[in-house]
């Protein structure tokens, strides 16, 4: 086997499968492990206990998949053609904002299937070898691995940033026992820019490269279950699943690559539907409209909770009040609590306008 020649073919096959970039790294994550421990000690992971429970495996790829010598990291772009329209939705309080990555098919299955096809191509070239494919499906520090593989650096918002492609992309990995030559790590180009820190709606980016998930709208609307801190609710605006503000304002995203992947195209008009319409969905409709999408991860109760907050933040109107009153007696105590809060907000706004 010619390792360098094989890497060149891997990059070519990856491009044929829809990956925008591929890089190779070793498995040493000692530096990233120290940062993870600091993050956990600060409690910035919130209720995501699995980050601590599997901390050792997360920082030791060779233990997660025994025999691993190298990690092939790959990037797949997802930005829609009209990514700039995101600002229009965010500035329209009557519509629900969903993070752009979640508008199409759930990326986990798609990326994993492409990774498996790439592994199969390698097998066809050199015969059986030890490997395992991942896409946000196991305790992996994919961002540090991507940086070591040259795909991008960890920006001040903590997302992976590419100097030539921005940050609208998914990452996937192939852990392998092949002794491939490694790529040079990506260097940091954030410089003195603090746009992501300054714009974060809830102040979740508590410092350069430091994110407190407990204040992050993505965490609150997707991972967090139960009631959301009342002090944070007005800051969430109309964001009902995830948040892209730190990416939308990042100057490097002027280089973002538009995705030609049909499965990542927005489904069911969810890139800007009216909040009152979304709030009227029963659970069967929610499950039907979000089939095969990452939005399912929140669950129906959190979906209604998030929309209730957005309606509370919307301008006062009879339509909004009627939609909220229709769920005032919702079976879920979590939904009822947030509906009551939203109705109180609407009354306050009505009194102010009077």
UniProtKB/TrEMBL annotation:
Top enzyme class:
oxidoreductase
Query: EC number(s) per UniProt?
Result: 1.17.99.6
Query: Binding of cob(II)alamin: at which residues?
Result: 58, 136, 171, 218, 243-244
Its biological purpose is as follows: Catalyzes the conversion of epoxyqueuosine (oQ) to queuosine (Q), which is a hypermodified base found in the wobble positions of tRNA(Asp), tRNA(Asn), tRNA(His) and tRNA(Tyr).
Where is tRNA bound in this sequence?
Answer: 225
Q: How does it assemble?
A: Monomer.
Q: Which family does the entry's similarity section mention?
A: Belongs to the QueG family.
SUPFAM superfamilies registered for this protein in UniProt: alpha-helical ferredoxin (SSF46548)
Q: Which PROSITE patterns match?
A: 4FE4S_FER_1, 4FE4S_FER_2
Question: What are the protein's UniProt keywords?
Answer: 4Fe-4S, Cobalamin, Cobalt, Cytoplasm, Iron, Iron-sulfur, Metal-binding, Oxidoreductase, Queuosine biosynthesis, tRNA processing
Q: How is the cofactor bound?
A: Binds 2 [4Fe-4S] clusters per monomer.
Identify the residues that the record assigns to the 4Fe-4S ferredoxin-type domain, covering every copy. 178-210
Q: Where is the active site?
A: 136
HAMAP family tied to this protein: QueG
Q: Name one GO biological process term.
A: tRNA queuosine(34) biosynthetic process
Extract the GO molecular function terms from the UniProt entry: 4 iron, 4 sulfur cluster binding; cobalamin binding; epoxyqueuosine reductase activity; metal ion binding
Checking InterPro entries in the record gives: 4Fe4S_Fe-S-bd, 4Fe4S_Fe_S_CS, QueG, QueG_DUF1730
Involved pathway(s): tRNA modification; tRNA-queuosine biosynthesis
Q: Which domain of life is it from?
A: Bacteria
Question: What's the source species for this entry?
Answer: Denitratimonas tolerans
Q: Which residues bind [4Fe-4S] cluster 1?
A: 190, 193, 196, 250
Task: Spell out the GO cellular component terms annotated for this protein, sorted alphabetically and separated by semicolons.
Answer: cytoplasm
Catalysed reaction(s) here are: epoxyqueuosine(34) in tRNA + AH2 = queuosine(34) in tRNA + A + H2O
Name the UniProt record assigns to this protein: Epoxyqueuosine reductase
């Amino acid at each position: 086997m010619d390792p360098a020649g094989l890497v060149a073919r891997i990059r070519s096959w990856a491009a044929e499968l829809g990956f925008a970039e591929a890089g190779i790294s070793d498995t040493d994550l000692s530096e990233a492990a120290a940062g993870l421990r600091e993050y956990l000690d600060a409690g910035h992971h919130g209720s995501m206990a699995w980050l601590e429970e599997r901390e050792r495996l997360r920082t030791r790829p060779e233990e997660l998949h025994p025999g691993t010598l190298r990690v092939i990291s790959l990037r797949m772009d997802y930005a829609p053609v009209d990514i700039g329209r995101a600002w229009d939705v965010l500035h329209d309080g009557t519509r629900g904002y969903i993070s752009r990555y979640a508008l199409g098919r759930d990326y986990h299955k798609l990326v994993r299937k492409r990774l498996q096809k790439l592994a199969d191509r390698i097998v066809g070239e050199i015969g059986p070898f030890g490997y395992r494919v991942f896409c946000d499906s196991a305790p992996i520090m994919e961002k540090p691995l991507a940086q070591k593989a040259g795909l991008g650096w960890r920006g001040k918002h903590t997302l992976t940033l590419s100097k030539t492609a921005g940050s609208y992309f998914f990452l996937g990995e192939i852990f392998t026992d092949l002794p491939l030559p490694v790529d040079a790590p990506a260097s940091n180009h954030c410089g003195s820019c603090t746009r992501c820190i300054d714009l974060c709606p809830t102040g979740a980016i508590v410092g350069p490269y430091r994110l407190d998930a407990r204040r992050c709208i993505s965490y609150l609307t997707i991972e967090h279950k139960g009631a959301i801190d009342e002090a944070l609710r007005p800051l969430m605006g109309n964001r009902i699943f995830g948040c892209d503000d730190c990416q939308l304002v990042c100057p490097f995203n002027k280089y973002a690559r538009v995705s030609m992947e049909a499965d990542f195209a927005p489904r069911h008009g969810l890139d800007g539907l009216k909040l009152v319409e979304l709030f009227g969905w029963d659970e069967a409709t929610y499950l039907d409209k979000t089939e095969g999408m990452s939005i399912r991860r929140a669950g129906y109760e959190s979906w209604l909770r998030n929309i209730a907050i957005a309606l509370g933040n919307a301008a006062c109107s009879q339509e909004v009040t009627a939609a909220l009153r229709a769920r005032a007696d919702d079976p879920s105590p979590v939904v009822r609590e947030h509906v009551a809060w939203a109705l109180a907000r609407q009354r306050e706004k009505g009194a102010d306008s009077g």
